[in-house]
Amino acid sequence: MGVIVLNEDNFEEEVLKSNEPVLVDFFATWCGPCQMMSPILDKMSEEEKGIKICKIDTDDNMNLAKEYGIMTIPCIIAFKDGKELNRSIGLTDEKSLLKLLED
Q1: pLDDT by residue (tens digit) across 35-46?
Q2: pTM value surpassing 0.70
């Protein structure tokens, strides 16, 4: 499927109204750990079925970053049924990201 690029216009539709669990990567282009996280999310977006992988640039979408209290990046937030389940801050691995989706 590939990673879906989010912005303030499509966030609600792609994340909050999604019928499947969503991992959202809050990132910035200048952030080294964020750049290291990108290939992990790309791989997951191709291999993991039934999970939507998205990313949103915090510099370009400051209102959403503020709404979700993003203070450190990368910050991965797991959403299910439009609600935040869990979050992870900093560089992490695929296995840990999948655990974020567990209730």
Answers
A1: 999 999 999 999
A2: yes
